[in-house]
Design goal:
By secondary structure, the chain is mainly β. The chain is built from one helix and 23 strands. It folds into two domains: about 5-90, Sandwich (Immunoglobulin-like); about 110-270 and about 280-290, Jelly Rolls (Sandwich). About 5% of the residues lie in helices and about 50% in strands. It is globular.
């Protein structure tokens, strides 16, 4: 298994050059704090998460940058770093379609997305939102409802909290609209575990265009563990913070990979101009879903 030791040490070496920015995120209507907001530095693969009380802190090297704030149930907002001491997010005006609840039998189930090989690796991986694509197959017609989502994680603490996302596929094949109205916050206990989360209450149906399922690590205090690491350049012991849980990944070949950077999805493919269609090796999160009728 890999770990984040080297990354954490490099991060700390440049840490002294960064300025700490603090702020709080609130609902623009009632003024209540908004927890677990995804906060990204615009156009950079770096960010943080607001705490349960809406407060956040982030270290940046360039105060001219902007931060992107996003949370389900609120409009996305981009704010200059100089103006983030209090950020007000506007709740989205939901226009709900009429929901037709079909009778479920749950006499059949199908698990899809099993890892292609038995070798899984875990490490503190960027970006903080990792997704896996589940293509549609006509055989799912008989088991079209999402019953459970299954994730394999590794944690050094109990009650390690994170988000699970469900994205539709847009016209360009990118992760599109989120299929839930509110954040789906879950937790796992200490150790390496394969955990099933029931999603029946969301009445999700496997889209015929396929489905992206995502894991988002929350960079909050309750998920953090700090340890002292020796900096051999200065011969000093320095604190390095690690956030749990870690996701387990399967090393696979794919045509492309989607990476969440600066509040938006970026598609990465083979940079070889002579063979752009060749598949690339990526680390795909160990996520499966269970369908039922």
């Amino acid at each position: 298994m890999k770990n984040s030791f080297f990354f954490g040490l490099l991060f700390f070496v440049g840490f002294s050059a960064l300025a700490q920015i603090r702020g709080v995120v609130k609902d623009s209507i009632d003024g209540k704090p908004v927890p677990y907001v995804t906060i990204s530095v615009e156009n950079e693969n770096f960010g943080t998460t607001s705490e349960e009380n809406g407060e956040f802190k982030i270290h940046v090297s360039d105060k001219s940058k902007k931060l992107v704030f996003s949370a389900l149930g609120f409009e996305r907002k981009t704010v200059s770093i100089s103006d983030v001491s209090e950020v007000r997010l506007k709740p989205t005006a939901l226009q709900l379609d009429e929901v037709v609840i079909s009778k479920r039998f749950e006499t059949q189930k199908k698990e899809i997305g099993e890892p292609e090989n038995a070798i899984l690796e875990t490490f503190d991986k960027a970006p903080r939102i990792d997704i896996k694509f589940f293509p549609y197959d006509p055989s799912y017609k008989k088991t079209r409802y999402l019953k459970q989502v299954v994730l394999v994680t590794d944690s050094k603490i109990n009650d390690a909290t994170f988000k699970i996302h469900f994205y539709s596929v847009d016209a360009n094949g990118y992760p599109g609209e989120e299929l839930l109205e509110k954040d789906f916050i879950v937790a796992v206990d200490k150790g390496v575990s394969k955990t099933k989360f029931n999603v029946s209450k969301f009445n999700l149906i496997m889209p015929k265009t396929g489905l992206f399922v995502g894991f988002e690590k929350l960079l909050i205090d309750k998920n953090s563990v700090e340890k002292m690491v020796m900096n051999y350049n200065t011969n000093e012991a320095l604190p390095v913070t690690t956030y749990y849980p870690f996701m387990l990944y399967n090393n696979v070949k794919r045509n492309f990979q989607f990476v969440f950077i600066g509040g938006k999805w970026i598609r990465k493919s083979n940079p070889d101009q002579n063979n752009p269609a060749d598949k690339i090796r990526i680390y795909e999160p160990a996520i499966t879903i269970i369908l039922t009728n």
